TrEMBL record:
Superkingdom, taxonomy of origin: Bacteria
PANTHER family: CYTOSOLIC FE-S CLUSTER ASSEMBLY FACTOR NUBP2 (PTHR23264:SF19), NUCLEOTIDE-BINDING PROTEIN NBP35 YEAST -RELATED (PTHR23264)
Example GO biological process: iron-sulfur cluster assembly
Oligomer status and interactors: Homodimer.
GO annotation, cellular component aspect: cytosol
Protein name in the entry: Iron-sulfur cluster carrier protein
């Protein structure tokens, strides 16, 4: 992965030490812009609450896109509860710097790379006790000080809610397109509606809604069981005039794969969840292409 030749490199990132905002903020802004210019699509994966499987959706969607030949990066901005490296089986205790002083993201395979706070902690059980300014500075450095190279997709996995991390991502990456994850239950939909309102207030681009845990795929007969009901995500998307990108069923294979540190998409066997994520990846690509065509026709 090549670094930006037109930008000066910054100091190596050290958690808790080199985390203060650079006094030459304009230089960091230039480095951020230089990095983002080489990434075609930035997908901001978010939800209104925890427990909806957002990180699992991020990892498997990224793996599905990578399996289709796209160059994909995952930026885990869940500072306090990073789980992406574990779901991908990334065991590195640190990220190596290149000759220009930038960090190289951890490599999962030839098409998939990841950066997470978890990879920067020597002790994985260490709690990160940071407030807003430090989290903001860290996220900016995850973009400016990492040699992402040329990517087709950068998926940004966020913590639950609508806090500092979300506002920082939308400000730092203003052309990011949001994908909202929900489950069919009303308790999840209520929080997701708040997340959609937040995105609308922030004037963010919203690509669509994904319904995770959309029915249960029986491991014995393969039939679908409406364990938590289904369809709530699609109804929410229709209410807000958003695209419904698809539903991912509950599948025991997903749990087994996650414990092994392998995305279910990367398993050889065919499963309901694997089919769901591959279909979701296709729908995302299609929705992005339609969005670009719409913008192009508007300004032509």
């Amino acid at each position: 992965m090549s670094s930006c030749s037109g930008c000066s490199s910054s100091k190596e990132f050290t958690p808790g030490k080199e985390i203060k905002a650079s006094p030459k903020k304009n230089i960091q802004d230039e480095m951020i812009n230089c990095t983002l210019d080489k990434i075609r699509h930035k997908l901001f994966i978010m939800s209104g609450k925890g427990g909806v499987g957002k990180s699992s959706v991020t990892v498997n969607t990224a793996a599905a896109l990578a399996a289709k030949g796209y160059k994909v990066g995952i930026l885990d901005v869940d500072i306090h509860g990073p789980s992406i490296p574990g779901l991908l089986g990334v065991k590195d205790s640190g990220l190596e710097s290149d000759r220009g002083g930038l960090l190289n993201p951890a490599k999962v395979n030839d098409n998939l790379y990841v950066v997470s706070m978890d990879s920067l902690l020597k002790d994985k059980d260490t709690a990160v006790l940071w407030r807003g300014p430090k989290k903001t500075a860290a996220i900016r450095q995850f973009v400016s000080d990492v040699n992402w190279g040329e990517l087709d997709f950068l998926l940004i996995d966020s913590p639950p809610g609508t806090g500092d991390e979300h506002m920082t991502v939308l400000k730092t990456i203003p052309d990011a397109t949001s994908v909202v994850i929900t489950t069919p239950q009303e308790v999840s939909l209520a929080d997701v509606r708040k997340a959609v309102n937040f995105l609308q207030y922030a004037k963010a681009n919203v690509l669509g809604v994904v319904e995770n845990m959309s029915g249960l795929a029986c491991p014995h007969c393969g039939e679908e069981i409406e364990l938590f009901k289904k369809g709530g995500g699609k109804e929410l998307a229709e209410k807000y005039g958003l695209e419904f990108l698809g539903g991912i069923p509950l599948d025991p294979a997903t749990v087994v794969a996650a414990d092994r540190g392998v995305p279910v998409v990367m398993l050889e066997e065919d499963t309901a969840a694997k089919r769901g994520f591959l279909n979701l990846a296709d729908n995302i690509v299609k929705a992005l292409n339609c969005s670009l065509e719409s913008v192009s026709s508007t300004h032509s």
